[in-house]
Design goal:
The complex is a heterodimer of chains A (157) and B (194). Chain A is built from four helices and six strands, in the order E-H-E-E-H-E-E-E-H-H. Chain A is α+β, with helices and mostly antiparallel strands and 157 residues long. In chain B, a hairpin with a 4-residue loop joins strand 1 and strand 2. Chain B is globular and about 50 Å long. Classes of the chains: A alpha+beta (157), B alpha/beta (194).
């Protein structure tokens, strides 16, 4: 069914970032992302540099969507984790409810450590996003409530 | 699915370009990419075959501007149009906020248009969406070719709910931004209502 929109307030955003920062430190990772299954980047922490996080988020979501489709064809609900190992950099993706936790790591860490730390933090993240989703359903103050047709038209001048 | 980040003052929406194979979905995105200033867009990601047919999706983030202090970003996606990629099309529609149906105006592609539109409605329904309630624009592409169906006949066959109908020649860019503006306005208006 169609998902409800995500409304992320400042304190929630900082809480998520704090969890990601802790995960990054504990797993000795290079970058940690939280991405919605639709491909929207929610939060990121780490040595982002010139990394195109928007494209990475979209591709990761596509990756999970495609392998999720494959899983269902063979009778599985989904693959809860995906790992891609490169020569120097690797990526580990965990599916946490409607979110993807993406950890990019190099020789400073190991897949085992990343998997362990990701699993340890997944319940906390799940609870946080459920709270955010529920808060979004209860929140009737849209930032767009007062916008006018002129406001929208001005975007296209 | 709209994502509003109050901390970074950003609103993100997803628009999907749909239509039969070779109708011009990717061409639409390519033109938007080439015609938009680099600071207002990200990379154009195209997951395609060796013969440049879309295999999984094309993706491009676009920043339209700021409204009420919020940066409005649209994530543009295309689906693969060939019939046998239906499983992939279903996945890409997930979280959609607005749809553009790109119709191929050529006479010999009329059946393909109808089949693809039916497929869109089915796949939206499977994801819990109703085309009648979704921001939606119909683009009639390839209006420059000689063997095309008149606009009135195409509209009679393809219009679903008095949606905006935009004539286009995506290969030259004609109608591409009009289409994008039409669907983006609907998405933002819908946000205001909700």
């Amino acid at each position: 069914m169609a998902d409800t929109p995500i409304l992320l307030h400042q304190n929630q955003y900082h809480q998520l970032k704090a969890v990601l920062a802790r995960l990054r430190m504990d797993s000795a990772a290079r970058v940690v992302f939280l991405v919605d299954k639709d491909g929207q980047e929610i939060a990121a922490q780490g040595e982002i540099g010139n990394l195109d996080t928007t494209s990475l988020a979209s591709l990761a979501a596509g990756n999970v969507a495609a392998t999720g489709g494959m899983a269902q064809l063979i009778g599985e609900k989904e693959f809860p984790t995906l790992s891609h190992e490169g020569e120097r950099e690797s990526i580990h993706i965990s599916v946490i409810g409607r979110l993807l936790l993406i950890v990019v790591f190099d020789e400073r860490s190991t897949l085992g450590l990343v998997k362990l730390r990701s699993r340890q933090v997944s319940q906390q993240l799940l609870a946080m996003i459920e709270e955010i989703t529920q808060a979004g359903l209860d929140d009737h103050d849209s930032p767009f409530a007062g916008i006018t047709d002129e406001d929208i038209d001005s975007l296209f001048k | 699915m709209t994502f509003i980040n109050y901390a970074s003052r950003e609103i993100n929406c997803k628009i999907v370009y749909y239509g039969p194979g070779l109708c011009g979905k990717t061409t639409n995105l390519q033109h938007i990419f080439e015609a938009t200033a680099p600071q207002a867009r990200g990379k154009l990601i195209s997951l395609a075959t060796e013969t440049d047919r879309t295999l999984f999706f094309d993706f491009m983030p676009l920043e339209l501007g700021t409204v009420r202090g919020f940066k409005t970003r649209f994530h543009l996606y295309t689906v693969p149009g060939q019939v046998f990629y239906d499983a992939s099309r279903k996945l890409i529609l997930k979280g959609v906020d607005g749809v553009v149906f790109v119709a191929d105006s050529q006479e010999e592609r009329m059946d393909a248009n109808v089949e693809s539109l039916y497929n869109l409605e089915e796949n939206l329904r499977a994801q819990g969406y109703d085309l009648m309630k979704l921001p939606y624009v119909l683009q009639l592409n390839k209006r420059d070719l000689p063997n095309i169906v008149p606009v009135e006949d195409l509209a009679a066959e393809l219009v679903r709910k008095a949606e905006p109908v935009v004539e286009a020649v995506a290969s030259s860019g004609a109608g591409v931004f009009d289409t994008l503006k039409a669907v983006a306005k609907q998405v933002l208006t819908e946000l205001r209502k909700s």
